[in-house]
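note to self: dont lose this again. the chain is below, predicted strucutre after it. 247 aa total, dont forget to put it in the shared folder this time
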Amino acid sequence: MRAPSVAVVIPAFREERLIANTIASVPKDVAQIIVVDDGSDDDTGGVARRTSDRRVTVLKHPENRGVGAAIYSGYQEALRGSADIFVVMAGDNQMDGRDLPQLVAPLLCNQAEYVKGNRLIHPEFRQMPRLRRYGSILLSWLTSWAAGTSWGDTQCGYTAISRKAAQALNYADLWPRYGYPNDLLIALAQDGARVVETKVRPVYATEESGLRAWHILSIIRVILRRVLLAKLRKSAPRLSLDDGGAL
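---
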């Protein structure tokens, strides 16, 4: 049997300054790199195409659809290939490629279908901007409550998903913009997927955190939307044979 292969999905919006560094940070044993240029009005896609890395495929959204939508496009492109595991690394170079082996390890051992990085348990967690750190704690608590489980860092975008779990996702139902990790995590939990976390290093050098207070409020609305959808589905009447329908 062949060894499991990994594809890395890189969602990118206006990242012409950092996208080449992000690509260079991807470990050499990764089979495929899929850069999804989410409607950038700079040269993000062009810089990605001009790298010497032959593993790179660049997709282009004609307009900005949101980071979640970019990731889902990357998953769907990866499903057309042969990779067994799909890893997400943001285009802003805030993820350490050296953490990738421990991120995918639970999938290789069949301990999970989805793995999230957790920056808050790393010794360097104080590198995170204060608003992002405390906002992540708040949103992790709220997302855990909504999913009926416990996660420490729901906002970390460094993730790995099995091919089977990616195939099973209802992409039309997933939130495409800010709040996508919370929506996806709750959806996975509701479907009974095994989700685990692993320690990853937070990287904040010349990059700036994009999280703002209004983003936190928007994400809370996304979480409540997913909870409401679940309740509506549970309360929806089911057709029976007596109604002339099908079970």
